[in-house]
Design goal:
Blueprint (H helix, E strand, L loop, with lengths): L23 H19 L4 H8 L17 E3 L7 E2 L10 E4 L7 H11 L14
Antiparallel strand pairs: 1-3, 2-3
């Protein structure tokens, strides 16, 4: 984002690297039109005010139904951890169970984000509810 304008980059692939010859002349036209529409949508009049308003809104999250135990938290320790191969390249291969007598989602999310290095205000009530 520069000067309150969003720029778009699209990356895609085709199955098995197949490309139909009849589509080649039209591909650039289709991509150019798609780019124009998306860029116009992201930069439409009034969008800057909407983005500013969004900064003052809350996001409500819920987590339920732990059929296979408590949710997991990222861990630096390799002892007694659950190893997840898919997260290895992101530094998130070791996980530990979130242990508390009574589950509190706000506390879980606070610990989860803290372990990822993010300090985010998290509340367990909204308007007293």
């Amino acid at each position: 984002q520069s000067q309150n304008i969003f720029h778009c980059v699209c990356i895609f692939s085709t199955p098995e690297d197949k490309w139909y010859d009849w589509f080649s002349p039209f591909f650039f036209l289709v991509m150019e039109e798609a780019y124009r529409v998306v860029r116009g949508y992201l930069n439409r009049p009034g969008i800057q005010e909407l983005r500013q308003a969004d900064e003052r809104f809350y996001i409500t999250l819920a987590l339920r139904n732990f059929n296979r135990g408590p949710p997991l938290l990222p861990s630096d320790e390799h002892d007694e951890s659950v190893i997840i191969q898919d997260g290895h390249d992101r530094g998130l291969s070791c996980w530990i169970p979130f242990e508390q007598k009574k589950f509190c989602f706000a506390e879980y999310l606070r610990q989860f984000l803290d372990r990822l290095g993010h300090q985010v205000p998290i509340y367990d009530t909204l308007d007293g509810k």
